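Progress against Task 2.4 (sequence-to-structure conversion) is shown through the following example record, which the project officer requested during the mid-term review.
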Amino acid sequence: MGWLSFWNSDDSNPVKNLDPSLKEFLEKEQPEHQEAQPPPAETSYHSQISTPTSSQQPQSKPLVPKQSLYQDGRYAHLWKDYTPLYEQENAIKSEQEKLRDLVEDQDYRKAELGRVALESCVFEHLAQQDCFTNGSVKDMMTMCSEEGKVFTRCYKMQAKFMKALGYMNAVGDTEREERIQMHADKLYRQMLEQERLTNEARERGEPIPTFQNPLSPENVGSSGELVRPPQKGTVDESVPYSRIPQQFREVFMNEIQGMSPTEAAVEEAAFLADLENQRQTAVKGTKYMVEEAQARQRRFELGKPTIGDRIKRSTGWDKKLDLDDGTAEKHNGGEEG
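Structure tokens generated for the chain above:
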């Protein structure tokens, strides 16, 4: 081919001096140039497997569950009928087993709250232990009461701050847990600094400075969306602590006896968080009982009731749940509240 390119060159092309018939012969015998074809584009793995089109399946839905080691979609056909083990076990659990799991879950969340509060007060705890080990005779006679008071207060207040910030609902979400723990510790140290400034002003005879509520929206909002602000409620300026329901107000007023206004504000938020947590637990428990009662009613309709079904019907248990007035739907919707 090189010789042909030479003959076709524009500079001193000797072909122009050839006989026309010979030129025509050479042009016919010259092979056609083939244009270079671009290499085929590499196809992704998603295009090699048969997956539903975008119109059949939302793009936000993952091709494989999170349990798969290959989140790029490989072996999606093996995972299409997969059901997590906890869902299979939960589907065959009885009413009593579900209620037991609900109680165990609440106990676990309370234990985690205590563990994290102790972790946040580790220096106060170490100071108390050091006092027991290396303390003076006076410390031994008083059982290190001063260090004990500091540690006990830190532990209780850290737990209350975390309750108010929604820690009980964040157990299991590591990022939220850490964010709430750090912010609760920050608010507690801020409260101690405010108390120190107040005491110094009182000793000098100066006006006592006023500080913002540590759980105000400004303080809580600075921690980001992972920390839930304290539960809001209707506020009546003429009634102290009007966010506390009337039936629990006497108990709450006994709890805040001797507390400073700042501590009382934290106690109020923690008290409301406890009430909300109890409400959610009660809603879940009622939902389990309603579902079991509906299944029991279906077994009666099919003529296959168990001995337990007959006992509960004879005691009027199902009538207490009022299945005919839409109680199940009411409780299912209430769980989201």
